[in-house]
């Protein structure tokens, strides 16, 4: 039987309130992560090679002294969220120093498994604004319209076509995932299954991370990437590394090839 508000013990109600505030302010978690990546904190901690004090971190990041306490608050939050860890040294004064955890190692740029580009894409305002449309979408959205369509007046790939900044962000996010998958594929010798084919086309292959790795591993195979013209246009001639890039719409034409690759990206669950 449900308890009425009057009968509910005060302690439970406090817990419920705390739970709700946790949800309502949950964006602080993601915005702190975004801020840490944008400032390059994981890279500084990595390059420093030992725990770093707040003052040292502020110097590395060129944060003015007036904002160093705010940087301290950010670090405290990120430690609380498990992204960084901290030591307290009991010297002349008690000084906190920070270091990476196994989670934040995945935010270091030089790590093969770095997910920073994906996090920056997911937390870009372009991806967040549709969330504000969700309620309206349930009641007023057309059947085939997504909250993204409602917010931007077009789909994700249409938006990337007209906004170079978002195009770059999205392509880099996809490339970072492809780098990891490519690494795993190479390690497991997955390309061997393609040794017998003469040509491969990676449909929706983005900026060609996967196809370039394939071309390197199997130089005798003709490797192609089909992607939308605004994506292909971002790949310079000298960056193509033996891969043919074709700008087009896969629903209209797919270049003939012995094998077709179709790699999509979904966040792990
Ligand atoms: C989710 S991304 C995946 C990129 C890449 N395959 C990967 O996994 O890293 C989808 C890709 O498909 C491309 N794409 C979307 N619609 C397309 C279409 N109609 N024809 C060709 N490519 C398309 C996008 O530009 C984007 O690069």
UniProtKB/TrEMBL annotation:
Domain O-methyltransferase C-terminal: 133-263
Signal peptide bounds: none
InterPro entries found in the cross-reference section: COMT-like, COMT_C, COMT_dimerisation, SAM-dependent_MTases_sf, WH-like_DNA-bd_sf, WH_DNA-bd_sf
Methyltransferase listed as a keyword: yes
Any one biological process term the GO annotation gives: methylation
Keywords associated with the record: Methyltransferase, S-adenosyl-L-methionine, Transferase
CDD domains referenced in this protein's UniProt entry, alphabetically: AdoMet_MTases (cd02440)
Domain O-methyltransferase dimerisation: from-to ranges: 21-109
MF (Gene Ontology): O-methyltransferase activity; protein dimerization activity
SUPFAM superfamilies on file: S-adenosyl-L-methionine-dependent methyltransferases, Winged helix' DNA-binding domain
S-adenosyl-L-methionine keyword on record: yes
Name this protein carries in UniProt: Trans-resveratrol di-O-methyltransferase
């Amino acid at each position: 039987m449900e308890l009425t508000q009057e009968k509910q013990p005060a302690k439970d109600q406090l817990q419920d309130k705390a739970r709700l505030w946790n949800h309502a302010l949950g964006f602080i978690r993601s915005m702190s992560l975004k801020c840490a990546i944008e400032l390059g904190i994981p890279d500084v901690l990595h390059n420093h090679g030992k725990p770093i004090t707040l003052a040292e971190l502020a110097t590395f990041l060129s944060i003015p002294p007036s904002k160093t306490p705010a940087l301290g608050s950010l670090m405290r939050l990120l430690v609380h969220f498990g992204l960084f860890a901290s030591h307290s040294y009991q010297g002349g004064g008690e000084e906190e120093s920070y270091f990476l955890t196994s989670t934040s190692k995945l935010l270091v740029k030089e790590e093969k498994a770095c997910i920073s580009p994906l996090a920056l894409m997911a937390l870009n305002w372009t991806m967040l604004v549709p969330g504000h449309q969700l309620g309206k979408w349930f009641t007023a959205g057309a059947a085939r319209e997504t909250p993204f369509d409602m917010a931007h007046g077009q789909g994700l790939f249409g938006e990337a076509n007209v906004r170079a900044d978002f195009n770059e962000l999205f392509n880099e996010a996809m490339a970072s995932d492809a780098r990891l998958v490519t690494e795993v594929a190479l390690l497991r010798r997955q390309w061997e299954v393609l040794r017998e084919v003469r040509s491969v086309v990676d449909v929706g292959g983005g900026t060609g991370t996967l196809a370039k790795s394939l071309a390197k591993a199997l130089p005798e195979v003709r490797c192609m990437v089909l992607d939308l013209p605004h994506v292909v246009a971002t790949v310079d001639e000298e960056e193509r590394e033996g891969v043919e890039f074709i700008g087009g719409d896969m629903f209209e034409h797919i270049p003939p090839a012995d094998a077709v690759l179709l790699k999509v990206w979904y966040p792990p669950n």
